[in-house]
Design brief:
Layout lengths: L20 H12 L8 E5 L6 H14 L3 E6 L4 H9 L6 E4 L5 E3 L2 E4 L3 E4 L6 E2 H10 L8 E7 L6 H19 L10 E8 L1 H9 L10 E4 L5 H14 L6 H11 L3 H17 L7 H25 L3 H11 L6 E2 H8 L3 H13 L3 E5 L2 E4 L2 H9 L10
Parallel strand pairs: 1-9, 1-10, 2-8, 8-9
Antiparallel strand pairs: 3-6, 4-5, 6-7, 11-13, 12-13
Helix pairs in contact: 1-2, 3-4, 4-5, 7-8, 8-9, 8-10, 9-10, 11-12, 11-14, 12-13
């Protein structure tokens, strides 16, 4: 049996990373060009299902091939403590963990956030100190370094994020101030990935202003023509056939949404597999689209809507009546029974969160098309009220 080449599981590396070439190239160049290169500090933003986790996985693969150490974390309580535990030299055992704004260590300048007590040390070890000690160890070769990737950044406390960013800033500065030749300097690279709103909050925090110089990578939808070509190539390379027209129909149904690309590909492949056929037919494509939408609704659309306020959902529901066309702000005002100032407030908030975008004066449309389609198909959010 031929193995399905499409991988819609979250974080699983798919065989196609279409539309992400520039991000991968910029990251690789950051590692290759030495300390201070822009690609060594990156902020990856995008809505759920836009491939942030997959991109972080590929970043770590790129770093590993260059003999960098890689540490992957997903934001949750205790993030700083886990990072220190992962970075600290072997033999040190974490006995207690707490966060403090500033910690003095004998023989070391005042350290930034992320205090941990280690049983084998006489003084608390900070994240900043842990990174510095690891970089100075023989385990990391000249010119190499440590890559930290922080996924689901929106789930982290701002204290943890400030702790991490501040530690990286101090370590980077210390590296720059050494007399070691640039090609021999060991480095630290970090990539934060999360929803647009939290990344904006992180950049605008006074304690992490240096992140304003970080390379921004805003993930967007993939052009339909590129998706069609990817379907054709992936199916053919995996030993099956699909016509240009059917590949285009499948691509159009994804709206260029990376997770949806994997879902449609997976289920249209499975439809052919169930028939024990090497040809993916138009009926297989239609079945694949139908099955993919069911999964996408539960995995992406519902969580996105649930993560927004009742007022924002009311705004989006009012827009859904016009989907797939744009909505007039005046119509949203009338349907929601709210004031123009209320509409303008939530219009700005949803644009900032990359959920909608302006299509002209007084006009907005869904930036994530499947949300509009979901609201058009489901009545669950209709009639909702906001205070």
């Amino acid at each position: 049996m031929q193995q399905n080449p499409f991988k819609p599981t979250a974080g699983k590396m798919p065989p196609i990373l279409i539309g992400r070439d520039s991000a991968l190239e910029e990251f690789a160049e950051g590692l290759d060009n030495g300390a201070g290169a822009p690609g060594r500090i990156m902020l990856v933003t995008g809505q759920r299902g836009f491939g942030k986790t997959v991109l972080l996985t590929e970043f770590r693969r790129i770093a590993a091939t260059r003999q960098w150490e890689t540490i992957a974390e997903t934001a949750s309580p205790g993030l700083v403590s886990r990072l220190v535990d992962a970075i600290a030299p072997s033999g040190m055992h974490v006995s207690q963990a707490s966060i403090a704004p500033s910690i003095g260590i004998a023989g070391v300048t005042t350290a930034s956030l992320g205090q941990l007590s280690l049983s084998s040390a006489t003084a608390p070890l900070t994240l900043r100190h842990a990174i510095a000690k690891r970089l100075n160890s023989h385990k990391i070769a000249k010119g190499k370094g440590i890559l930290l990737t922080i996924d689901e950044t929106q789930a982290a406390s701002i204290d943890d994020l400030v702790a991490i960013a501040t530690a990286v800033q101090h370590v980077t500065t210390a590296i720059d101030e050494t007399d070691v030749p640039d090609q021999d300097k060991k480095g630290i690279a970090i990539v934060f990935a999360g929803l647009p709103s939290i990344i904006n909050d992180l950049v605008n925090n006074k304690a992490t202003t240096f992140l304003r110089r970080a390379l921004r990578c805003e993930l967007d939808s993939i052009p339909v023509a590129d998706v069609r070509d990817a379907f054709l190539t992936t199916v053919t390379d995996s030993g099956r056939r699909i016509t240009d027209d059917d590949a285009l129909a499948a691509a159009e149904a994804t709206d260029g949404y990376p997770y949806m690309i994997q879902l449609v590909g997976y289920y249209m492949w499975q439809a052919a597999q169930h028939r024990r056929s090497d040809i993916i037919t138009h009926d297989d494509v239609l079945r694949g689209i139908k099955d993919a939408l069911l999964v996408f609704d539960d995995a992406v659309c519902a969580p996105i809507l649930d993560s927004h306020t009742a007022a924002e959902r009311l705004f989006l529901t009012a827009m859904a009546e016009d989907y797939p066309n744009s909505s007039a702000v005046s119509d949203i005002e009338q349907r929601s029974h709210r004031s123009r100032s209320w509409v303008n407030k939530y219009r700005a908030a949803l644009i900032k969160d990359h959920l909608i975008h302006s299509t002209g004066y007084g006009q907005v449309a869904f930036a994530v098309p499947h949300i509009g389609a979901y609201l058009s198909r489901h009545e669950a959010y209709r009639g909702s009220t906001a205070k």
